[in-house]
Every structure is written in C-alpha cells, then in structure tokens.
Amino acid sequence: MLDFKLTAPLSPSVISTLIIVSVLALIFIIVGIRVNKLDPAKTPKGLVLLSVLIVDFFTKFLSDYMTGKRLKFFGPYLFTIIIFLLFANTSSLFGLNPPLANIGIALSFSVMTFIMIKVAEFKYQGLKNKLSGLIGPVKPLAPIMIPINLIGEVSTPFSMGLRLFVNLMSGTVIAAMVYTGINAVLGWVGSIFAGVLLHAVFDIFFGMIQAFVFFMLSTVNISMASEA
Fold first, then answer.
1. Cys-Cys crosslink for 85: which of 55, 121, 146, 211, Cβ 3.0 to 4.6 Å?
2. What local confidence, expressed as pLDDT, does residue 159 receive?
3. If you average pLDDT over residues 146-158, what whole number do you get?
4. What DSSP state is assigned to residue 42?
C-alpha cells in the first residue's frame, strides 16, 4: 500500500538553498537601507562601496549584450542568478550541501530562464513574429518544422540546467573518490592536505566557472530573444 504524506523532511539541498536565500536577502536589505541613507556628496565605504562596485561592474558587462530598457528589465534577474550561483556553488566550503547537486533545484533555474526567454520573445518580437518563426520560411513544411522548433525551444534551457547539475555533481563525486584514495594511501595527514586542495579546485574554481557559464548562457539567450 502506498504511503502518501502531505509533509516530509526537507532535503539537505533545499535546506542549503533556504539558508543561502535568507543570508543574501538579509545582505541585500542591509545594503538597500544603507544606500537609501547614503549622502551623495560622500564616498561610500565598506559593504556599500563593495556593493556599488559589483553592481557597476555587472552593469557595464551586461551593457555589451543589452542596453536601455532591456538592461533595466532583465539586468536584475541576471545579476541575481550570478550572485546566487556563486554562493550556492561554493557553499560546501561552509559545511552546506551544494544546492545545485540536486537535479530538481538545477532544473528550476532552467524553468526560470525559459520563462524569461519567452517573456523577452513575446515582449520584443511579438506573438506574430514568434509564430512565424516556429512555422519556418517554407509554409508547406510547417507540420515538420513546428515539432522540431518546439523541441529546440525547450531543449536550450533544459540543457543549461542539466549541464549545471551534471558538472557540479560530477565534481563532487570525483573529489570524494580522490579523497578516499588519498586517505587509503597516505592516511589522515595526507587527507587533510588533499581536502584543502580538492575544495579549492572543485568548490571554488569549478563552482565559479559553472556559475559564470550559466550566467553567460542566460545572458546570450535572453539578449537574442529580446532583439526585435
């Protein structure tokens, strides 16, 4: 007999996600309050200065792909994506389970990016142009082209989330295998040094690379979709 439950314990990945979201929300609220109280005639300091520099850097970076209203509309989403992924992909340094090692959480980013791409297409290209793009230039081939184009519409964001999950999960598995092997050969002393090196490579370096890759793919796809 199947046992259905309305509630169940949260997975470690979901708990890590909630912790990261809470910490980032608290930081953003504090920075927002300080920015509102900032004197324009004075140079900001500390956390406010760092936040201003980060936002200015990403604004200039995104301006190469979108400008004006497009940047103002999609910029906050893309900025939030890269900030969350940077913290999430390096969260294991603080003893948390990497959120993106859960395929459900990784694919949720695909869903959000897919929605933003569709919003960009319908907002800047229009429904008529979008439908004509699905049909293709040769109307008699529409019954063949429509299913192919629909698969292409879904495959891009899905592959982005799947790539994010697979790369992070494979890094975790490889690090665990290498750590276990070193522990068997060199003992706990070697394991300590190996653990530091593995965390530096897989948690920091590879984690940041995967965050930037997903950010860039989202930026490019949204930029292309929002071109009228």
1. 211
2. 76
3. 74
4. S
For residue 187, is it within any domain?
yes
CA atoms within 13 A on the CB side of 40: 0
**Confidence (pTM):** 0.74
Position with higher pLDDT, 35 vs 133: 35
Instruction: Look up residue 39 and give its two tokens.
Output: 């004197």
**Residues 6+ positions from 174 with CB-CB distance below 8 Å:** 202
Pairs from 151-158 (Cβ < 8 Å, separation ≥ 24)? 154/114, 156/117, 156/221, 157/110, 157/111, 157/113, 157/114, 157/117, 157/221, 158/107, 158/110, 158/114
Structural domain of 207: 12-115+152-225
Q: What is the pLDDT of residues 99-131, one digit of tens each?
A: 877 777 778 888 888 888 888 888 887 777 766
